[in-house]
Amino acid sequence: MLSFALRRLLLAVPTLLFISLVIFLLLEASPGDPLGDVPLTVPPEVKERMREALGLGQAWYVRYALWLKQFFWVEPLYWFDRVFGTGFSQGMQRIISFQSRSPVFDVIAERLPQTLTVVGLSYLVGVMIALPIGIVSAYRQYSWFDQIGTFVSMVGFSLPTFFTGVVFIIVFGIKLQWFPSIYDTTHRVTDWDSFLVQLRQMAMPVAVLALYNAAQISRFMRASMLDNLRQDYVRTARAKGLSERVVVLKHVLRNSLIPVVTVIALGLPAVFGGAIITEQVFKVNGLGQLLILAIHANDMPMVMTLTFIFAVLIVSFTLIADLLYGVLDPRIRYD
Amino acid sequence: MKLRSLMPGAAATAALAAAMAPAAFAERGSDGQVNVIMWQAPSTMNPYLSAGTKDIIAGSVVLEPLASFTPEGEVVPRLAAEIPSVENGGISEDLKTVIWKLQPGIKWSDGTPFTADDVAFTAEYCMNPQGGCAQLAKFEGVEKVEAVDELTVRVTFVSPRPDPFSAFVGAQSPILQKAQFQNCLGEAAPTCTEQNFNPIGTGAFVVREFRTNDVISFAANPEYRDPAKPAFATLLMKGGGDAAAAARAVLETGEFDYAWNTQLSPDVIAGMEAAGKGKNAAAFGSLVERIHVNLTDPSSSLPEGERSTIKHPHPILTDPAVRKALSMAIDRQLLTEIGYGPAGQPTCNLVPAPAAWASENTECLTQDIEAAKALLDEAGWTVGAGGIREKDGKRLTLLFQTSVNAVRQDFQALIKQWWSEIGVETELKVVDPSVFFGGDAGSPDTFQKFYADVEMYANNFEGSNPEPYLARQTCDKAPGPENQWQGENTSRYCDPEYDRLIGEMTQIVDPAERGAMGRRLNEMLTRDSNAIIPLVYRGTTSAVSNALGGVKLNAWDSELWNVADWHRVK
């Protein structure tokens, strides 16, 4: 197991380097210009100066090497300095966003809490709803509960969040005025009342995303339960005279959870990636909104850094899922 | 420049008068918080590092210039004691130096005095060649800026300047505090994140917290020169979402007091206004949506580097009758109604304002399909196969390009229809805005390269002096390989007489004469040659809550130019 993990970790290094190069080249090849939004009233000579100030005058491989150095050397040094109060990164240029001219990682750090609370919570809520629905749906296959569950998950699957989000805003935000339609990122939870305010403003985005996540996971759970319910060991357990409760919740559920856990683990990087559309609809302004804005503005350092962090997360969560699989299922051994 | 509230005039005046009265007695910070939503979120507070309107607006809450433009396009003093002129001795006889006298007693929000040194430093900051200053054009032709004494600044120009109000005038070039920014010159400019996000200013508010592309919290500036202002204790500027959601937050849910740039289709706005929580207001600056006619041949059979250059005149569009017919066939009234509603006016002018410069050029406002047909017949273009006109084996077929934008695509479809009625076949093309306006010399799809026969976009000028704007339509400003396709004379209009008049204009000082010359130049480009076919004079629109008073929408300067006067209407 350990050697497997080490081998995979080592292999991840060239994979990630390759991914970073591909992302960089894709961004390089894509049309568009970081100064595309600059008004036409700004003369071309001034634009040229601005372009040079952004470092765009150099060849692509120079800029790529610079980014690598900044990402893998300057940024870690900077954070090391922050923690230990040392001064190794003095005078070194961190990765700077084209849009705001501020360090990319500071902006990401500022955005992470919003994304984790809203998107993370919705994932948690989604999982908590999905598992019981999946279990009951499978155990009582084709019952009315299963039919409703299937219907709800189909709705969750097929309705895009930009639609459900706007419907929620119109119904609960404008008509009923129960919830605010705009998320206040400056809100601080200090007491019971401010906590309620926070709950109110999170209610709609969390609900929209939870519906979407729950739909997917409940289908996995149901399918996996159905597979296991038909197994011989279930019949044996029943024949032994075990109660239905023990049969379903102990024997079947445990075995069915194995693939579901991997699915959940694989979905976790998406939590960090933020929910691009939902964040935009409710103005949560987390990482998803940051990415989409950066893409629109052709903010190369920001897009590059964000997508690369997502790549790192995906690669590491895949590894975690693989290892979890081994831990949960004793039949699987990585030797 | 007209400020047009969408309320009926009398009601608006009454409401304004009622709203102004309590403001006079209010004290600083007595009105709580005002919420502003900017659907394009501000990225920085320093307008010298970003030319984006959203960032300039955010910066204008804190940073102030020496003088501002009013909604009518006039220059009014702000940090300056008066506007320099030849009469008051502020502008020298040879028009090469300008003396700005500063208002005494002004303090930065940190309590230190505001002096002429700060003004001179600001010029040094922007004119530094390594800084990549986005507002460098404001300082064009400035030789030096010196602090004569504590409260006097002298600006020296390389050549005479009849209209010197570019540097330090308007929200694009406000004054930075020397003490705060002195280590941020040149290459260090972008690394000064702390300074760029939290500039110390003289304006009505100070930054309390800045989150880039998300939200900015402001608090009333304790050192602001008028002790009774601002009426609001705090200002929250939230970013994100889209124009419709922003308008909804003001007009329907009432969560916000002011939404910037709510350019939406007129029926959508009308539906939202029906909720009775606020109004969409419009202000007009100099933005004109127009069609540029390519006077050079964009044909793909020409070698790269010669397409759309002066070397090869356009086979069809060099015929003035065709250009005139194209203009006559367009119903500008209908375009305006469909695309912009009250936020637009049909126009035949490239320079629609200020009043002294706006030509009485209204001939094109009535569509005349029959006359257009007759004109083409007369010029020898006869109707051929499929109803398309032809002459000497050349068919009247045009490629019409523009950027991706719902209103522009509606316009394209309508214009295509009208042109087909006069026997002109039109092929439509749309380009992503970041490519179209990106100016990448390697791309064939930029508006400057103009590998099409006609194209549509909007442009405006900053400040209230259209001279530099008109000067960009001379022969040598035509984009081509020799200037990396960067010129702004996209029509490739080239008339020696025009160039001569532009040269003459730099010598004229008298405002009335300048206006007359400007009108003449504008007519040469539009009515006389139809090299540029203006369509709609576009306003900027913003949604204002009924609970917010004191808003005077301004298209010549930052929309928040008078945020100090904003107050709560109870």
UniProtKB/TrEMBL annotation, chain A:
Q: How does it sit in the membrane?
A: Multi-pass membrane protein
What organism is the protein native to?
Paracoccus pantotrophus
- The source's domain of life comes to Bacteria
Q: What protein name is recorded for this chain? A: ABC transporter permease
**Keyword Glycosyltransferase (UniProt):** no
- Compartments, record wording: Cell membrane
Stretches that traverse the bilayer: 120-139, 151-174, 194-215, 257-282, 302-328
Among Gene3D superfamilies, the record links this protein to: MetI-like (1.10.3720.10)
Q: Output the GO biological process annotations, alphabetical, semicolon-separated.
A: transmembrane transport
Q: What InterPro entries does the entry give?
A: BPD_transp_1_N, MetI-like, MetI-like_sf
- Can you tell me which family this protein belongs to? Belongs to the binding-protein-dependent transport system permease family.
Q: Which UniProt keywords apply?
A: Cell membrane, Membrane, Transmembrane, Transmembrane helix, Transport
Q: Which residues form the ABC transmembrane type-1 domain?
A: 112-321
Quote the cellular component terms of the Gene Ontology held in the record: plasma membrane
TrEMBL record, chain B:
One protein family per Pfam? SBP_bac_5
So which residues are the signal peptide here?
1-26
Can you name one GO molecular function term for this protein?
Answer: peptide transmembrane transporter activity
Gene3D superfamilies, alphabetized: Dipeptide-binding Protein, Domain 3, Periplasmic binding protein-like II
Q: Where is this chain primarily localised?
A: periplasm
Q: Name one GO cellular component term.
A: outer membrane-bounded periplasmic space
Limits of the Solute-binding protein family domain: 74-469
Q: Could you tell me the keywords of this UniProt record?
A: Signal, Transport
Q: Which InterPro entries match?
A: Peptide/Ni-bd (IPR030678), SBP_5 (IPR039424), SBP_5_dom (IPR000914)
Q: Where in the cell is it found?
A: Periplasm
One of the GO biological process terms:
peptide transport
Sequence similarity: Belongs to the bacterial solute-binding protein 5 family.
Supply the name of the protein. Peptide ABC transporter substrate-binding protein
Question: What organism is listed for this UniProt entry?
Answer: Paracoccus pantotrophus (Thiosphaera pantotropha)
Q: The organism's lineage?
A: Bacteria, Pseudomonadati, Pseudomonadota, Alphaproteobacteria, Rhodobacterales
